Each structure stands twice: as C-alpha cells, then as structure tokens.
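Issue 218. Parser rejects a valid record. Input:
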Amino acid sequence: MPSRIIVLGMLRSGTSLTAELVRRWGAYAGPENHLWKSEADDPRGYGYMEYIPLQELNDELLEGNDRLPPPPEVLAEKAADPTYQGKAQRLIQAMEAETLKNQAVAWVWKDARLPLTLPFWVNFWGEVTYVIPIRHPAETILSAAKTEGVDEENMPYSAGLAYWQYCLLTILAYAQRTPAKIFMAYDQLMAQPLLECTRLCHFSISIAEFRRPIFSPS
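Output the parser choked on:
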C-alpha cells in the first residue's frame, strides 16, 4: 500500500510550496486536471496543489464556511454518517489506485482547511505522515490580507491571531499521536532552501525505511 502524506498547515503558511516539494520528491498528488489552479497560475503548473475532490468534500464538511471552525461534535457526527463515510473512503481508495497506477511510492494531500476538518479525517486515513509548514502568525495574517485584497490598516488582527492559534493547537493535538511528522519553517525554507529540502528528503527516506515490511523466513 502506498504511504499517505498529509501537508498539514493553515492558510498562507507555505502549504502549496511544501506540497510541491513533496510531489517532486516522488509523491503522487492527483491528475493534473484535478489539481486546483487560480486564473493567474501558469496553465502548465500545478497551482495550489489542492486535490479538487478533497476540496469539494471539505466544502461539505465546513458547510461553505471556511472561516469559522465547526464544532468537533458536528464533525464527529458526520464521520459516523454512512454517506460521509462512503465519500471519504472512496476518495482515499481513488488516491490509492491512482498512485499504484502511476507507480508512485506515496500520495500527498493538501488543503489549507484541513486543520479545521481534522476531527473528521483522522477517522479514515489511518497511518499517515504529516509534513507541517509553520510560519510566523504576523506574516501569515499579512499574507492572507494581501491575498484577500484587504488593506493592512483594516485587517482584523485579533481574529487572524485567534484563527492561527486554533489551527496550530489542533495540528499539534493530532500530530502528537504519530512519530511520523516533520515541521518545516517557512522562513528557514526561504533562507536556506537547499538545507531544508535536504532535511525533508532525509526525513522521507527514514520514514520509508521505518515503514518497510519486514518478512521473517517461514
């Protein structure tokens, strides 16, 4: 079975760049026509590295509101709903099949809203590796403001900080359950790209070795 890699970071923390690095390492991200791009993206590129079927299911889970985290009990109810169970399982099975078809050793998912829907997804994706981009909250908020076309003077910093804190605490709470995780600091990646990419590569190799099946002679 291919390894499952989740790029687990909040909006504007470097998730797209990190997911692209994981893809270049060899993970399968999905068919190019299923990876979301904005109109400004190079049509030959991979855009934001977000698998559109994953986006669509997250839209349903968040009920169209990706600025306000849903109560965990609501996501727990949806995780117990056979309709949502089927959708999640089919999505994962599709990624498994496509990954094997493309002879990749792993597949990668990225959606900057995954910190909001983690209480749902941890029920389905089983043993995963988390690659967690981290960025200073002020930089994250300013980058989000620029993306949304909000003037810095009118940016609600307190709301941005609360959102950043919620996402990071949720990430830490779930990531501590597995040893297969690596944190990637956005500023360090920008300042020392070769060093950070080498660190990511060494981590990927170590996880692959750790999870390699060991067969005893019969």
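Fixed in the parser; the record now loads. The longest strand covers residues 129-134.
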